[in-house]
Amino acid sequence: MRPLLCLLCLLLLMTIPSVRAAPPLLIGSGSLTGVYYPAGGALCRLLARAPAKLPCQVVATGGSAENLMALSRGALSLALVQADVQITSTQLPPLYRLFNLHQESLTLVTRLDSGISSLAELANKRLDIGNPGSGDHSTMLALIQALDWPQERIDQLSQRPGSERAQALCDGEIDAFAYVVGHPSSAISEAASLCPIRLLPITGEAVERWLQAHPYYQRTQIPAALYAGVDTAIATIGMPAGLIAGPQIDEALAYRITQQVFHRLPQLKRLHPALSQLDQQQMIGEASGLPLHPGARRFFVEQGWLPPLPDTPPPRS
After folding, report:
1. Which of 27, 28, 67, 71 has its CA nearest to residue 48?
2. What is the percentage of the chain residues whose pLDDT exceeds 90?
3. What are the E-state strand segments in 32-144?
4. Which CATH architecture does the domain made up of 105-239 adopt?
5. What are 42-71's pLDDT values in tens digits?
6. Which of 78, 157, 224, 251 has the highest local Cβ count within 10 Å?
7. Tell me, which fold does domain 24-102+241-302 have in CATH?
8. CB-count burial class (<10 Å; 0-12, 13-18, 19+) for 231
C-alpha cells in the first residue's frame, strides 16, 4: 500500500504546474568605490519592500557608457547613467529614463604636494581620465577636447578603473585623476586617507564656452569639509544621474518601480549620504537626458506633477 501511495503522490506532484519566481531586476551601477554601486543597492533594498516586492540585484560595471550598451542588448534591466552620457547616446533599441537620482560633480583630485592648483596646470601632467565605458572618461574627454589639448597629449592619458585611481595617485604613479561622482564619495575619501589631496576648481573661459554649448551641464560646487584637508567649497560642473530602463521594462513595470520609489522617497534618502538631498522636482527633470518612460510619465501625471501630453487620454483613476 505504501509504495502505491508514494507513486500516487509523485504523479500528483508531476501534474501540478511549477511556479517559477520572477527573475530579479539587474541594476547596472559602476565601480565598487563609486556612488553608483551603493546607490543601486539602496534602490534594490527599496524595491524589494512591500508593496512592490520586486527582487533585484545590483551589478558592478565599468560605468555609464558601458551600462547603456548592456541595457541595449538586454544584459541589464535598469542602470544608473549620468545625463551627459544619456544625451550623447545613440543606442538601439531606444532607452528611457524613469527619473533622475543624485547630482554628480566632475571632480579633479591631485596630491597636495604636486604643485598643481588649476585646470590649466594639468596640461603637461600625468592625468588619469578613467576607464573607457565610464562616465568619468566620457565627460573628461569632452572637457579636454574643449580645452584644445592636442591629440598626441590625449593619447598619453592613463585610463584606470575607479578602484585603482586613489592608490595610483598617492603612490606617485599619476599626478591627478578625474571622477564624475556624487558627494561624499568613498573613492575621494580613500585618496584623502592615503595622502594629502587637493580638489581643483573647474573654471575659466573655455569652461564657460563649453557650458554654453552644452546646457545639460550645470555649474555646481563640491561642499567644504567633506574630505580631510579640503576646507573650502570647490567650483566645478555637474549633471544628474538617471535610472534608465531597458527594453524589457514595460509601462506597467516602469509605473510600479516609479511609484514604489516616490512613495518611499524619505526611506531612500536615508540609505546613502549622496541620496540625502534628493528633490522630487529635480528627480522628474524633464530636460535631463533620455526621454521619460511612458510608465513613469503616467505616474507623474496621476500625481499632478506633470501635465498630460497632448492628444493623450486622461490618466486612469
Report:
1. 27
2. 75
3. 56-59, 78-82, 96-111, 127-128
4. 3-Layer(aba) Sandwich (3.40)
5. 999 999 999 999 999 999 999 999 999 999
6. 78
7. D-Maltodextrin-Binding Protein; domain 2 (3.40.190)
8. exposed
